[in-house]
Amino acid sequence: MADSEAAADLAAFTHLGEQVRAALSERGFTTPTEPQRKAIPPLADGQDGLVIAPTGTGKTETAMLPVFDALAGEDRFGMQALYITPLRALNRDMRDRLDWWGEQLELDIDVRHGDTTQYHRQKQAEDPPDVLVTTPETLQAMLTGKKLRKALGDVSHVVIDEVHELAASKRGAQLTIGLERLRELAGEFQRIGLSATVGDPGEVGKFLTGGRECALIEVDVGSRLDVRVRKPRVTDEDETLAAELASDPDLASHVRAIRDLVADNESTLIFVNTRQTAEALGSRCNALDLPIGVHHGSLSKEARIEVEDGFKAGELDGLLCTSSMELGIDVGRVDHVIQYQSPREVARLLQRVGRAGHRSDRLSSGTVLTTRPDDTLEALAICRRAHEGLVEPAEIHHGSLDTVANQIVGFVMDFGEIGARQAYEIVTRAYPFRDLGEETFREIVRELSGNRILWLDEEQDQLEKSGGSWQYFYANLSMIPDEETYTVSDVASGRTIGTLDERFVVNFAGPGETFIQRGEMWRIAEVDDEESEVKVSPIEDPAGEIPSWTGQEIPVPRAVAGEVGEIRGTVGESFADGASRAAVADDLADRYPTDEFTASEALDPLEKQIEADGPMPTGDRIVVESEPRSIVVNACFGHTTNETLGRVLSALLGQRTGSSVGMEIDPYRIELDVPRAVRGSDVVEILNETAPEHVAGLIELSLKNSDALKFKLAQVAATFGALKSWQSDSRFGRGRLLAALQDTPVYDEAVREVFHDDLSIDDAGDVLAGVQSEEIDLVTHSGHTPVGIDGRSSGKELLAPENADASVIDTVRERIQEDRMRLFCLHCQEWERTQEVRRIPDQPECPLCGSTRIAALNPWAEEVVEAIKTGEKDDEQEKQTERAYQAATLVQSHGKQAVIALAARGVGPHNAARIIAKLRENEDDFYRDILSQERQYARTQSFWG
């Protein structure tokens, strides 16, 4: 170590008093870690600070040692310091870590959250601890308590852990105003933020301090990573394993790779992107009796603690987990981290792999196991960006109106009454609300007054508590949406399996549907909305079963997708210049952390693209490829930008044709199912002619009929007190709610939140501007290309083998053969019959007139049949009638094969025609294509009219 570094080491601890230094020696801390060396001097000097450092480098002590030093040996009254964490589980961990210091320094340290008993709360109010570990929501409640307000008046330090997690959420926006409410009580206090990953430290520092000066202490995270990207190679063992797992060899190779990596290390976290993937892989691990547990937020608290303790004790060698494990819950030492499939964001890779190498000077060791070409290229881009420290910026909720409403009620709970001007000034001291207009603030106040949540004295410009204030405030302590949670229970035993979110149940649940939880497969017997319960029975032999539900993807940022586009461009040029695949793979493996086999596998669709003379989509080239009824816009702009562009295209194409346009997006493609009359040139025309400044207005119009906005509107309305309670079923009348709230802050906030969470208006506008200035190339191609069709599988969660095995195909075939279809003669319009598909002849014909022009319709299509007979049709029946005639044309040309395709779920006439038109070697492939289309419909049905 250089003399200057050694001196800095010594200097860091010399900023602390004798009592704390003695405790440091007792604890065995002789040399400060890098973040402690950099941060302790300014923090001990009383400065506000944001400390960004890898997990396991002593961030907690970095923040708390200067705080302890300020408190030790002083006469103390009330609470002196708050340590705020986003998770209750972190509260427990922090309490355990800080207790030793409290004993050494004679400081009282306690924890408080929603589960703290009433007795313990009363005790804290009567005799406040010196340091309280709590959550943002509990702070909200404490600010209104008479005795606790007095205790909080002595706060001189606030530490916020995992500040990046809060900065990107409405919980964090609420906390920023909460801190300003605390400032009204305690005056100025020191603010310290801790995080392992922050992409824009300056912005997050302002978020923390309200825009005031903040010391930024950063320790390089990327240089501590040792991460490799691997696509498992299918071996002979995997062929055998596939039969045991009732899967294909490709999936078996993934499970085998996880098994081997876990065996090579003592303790391994296996991160996946959704709860469903955790369950799916968990079920395969269970089948092999591997010592690997499952951990995610839908499991009960007891189940989570059980696997945490088992992992910490060494009873489990691995833990399959989601983002629930990103935030530093203490599960003991972690040697290695596996990321299954691309982590989607640089921040997630750093958070997750950063968990390895705790309490040691080793590099954080990780492996990203990828499944498909896009997945591999994306992981490579993310790993490179992680090493460079190119972390995504925090998406702060600027100007969240329902957060303001929530906190205005907090003011009247704090003070009983408060001047509107004073309330406005407190709100706008918080960084996310610095630009909130005074008139907007008044509209929010009037909305709350109209909902009888508070009283507004217009003459005195005073806000006062009303009879509804208390009930509202304590029902809305959290900005996490008040979404119903359904209990999942086993019909036979009555035991609780876990929970499911309301939106999940509303969109997907129904008797007979299947899903995986706790690594086991279940079939739904009943959904009880009154009791918020999903009753299930276990599937004893899951071989051949296909889980019905998939998870929501983590969005890939534009910068990551753009780098994938750059890789494509470089690779495309190499192939075009005649380079061999081996040479290109070798070059890619030199530039990115992977091996030649993984690189070569990722290059497969790119090589085929060049061989087929297809234009290569890149970060600055959009390729629009089209076939009848299907258009793929290859666009490397990430999820939210593509979602926005896709909605613009589907809305404008729908207006032109008067028909619904189906849409599916991934970070690299926008796939559109369009009427036959739509061509790729129509898409090009829209991209060239749509003014960038019109994007927001077009999107807002398109949202008005969407479930996404109506669901969000109900949540926001509840936060404004416009609804005392709400349910998501049809009885609620969300359409009427939309009309009633159109010109209110409630509607404005619902739109803002959908824009913030799911869309990227500015980036979509930038893309349109780039196309129109020719900075982005826009080219067309007739027919689908290898890169274009690769999207059909590249972004999907691996819940079941994509190429279903024989038992799955038999299940699909049997199900369709047992389905019933309504046959109706369009020639004489006199004959109709409903019967099982298996009993329908190879070439249906009318027994009355002999015509083969037979429409194959759903059994419940009585209204369509009646509309055809009478000629009296509304707009929707007109569309259904057109589809009936299309179906009849298919049946006339292809007989029973058309009936089978039309009997599938969500397969209309034009998709049935596409399935039938494919050349195949055997009947299994026909059913495999039907299954693929059913899956696509399940994922995209929310976009259909």
Automatic annotation (TrEMBL):
InterPro entries linked to this entry: ATP-dep_Helicase, DEAD/DEAH_box_helicase_dom, DNA/RNA_helicase_DEAH_CS, Helicase_ATP-bd, Helicase_C-like, Lhr-like, Lhr-like_DEAD/DEAH_assoc, Lhr_WH_dom
Biological process terms in GO annotation: DNA repair
Hydrolase found in the keyword field: yes
Region (Disordered): 30-50
Protein keywords: ATP-binding, DNA damage, DNA repair, DNA-binding, Helicase, Hydrolase, Isomerase, Nucleotide-binding
Domain of life, source organism: Archaea
Example of a GO MF term: ATP binding
Coiled-coil segments: none
Family: Belongs to the Lhr helicase family. Lhr-Core subfamily.
Name of this chain's protein: DEAD/H associated domain-containing protein
Lineage of the species this protein comes from: Archaea, Methanobacteriati, Methanobacteriota, Stenosarchaea group, Halobacteria
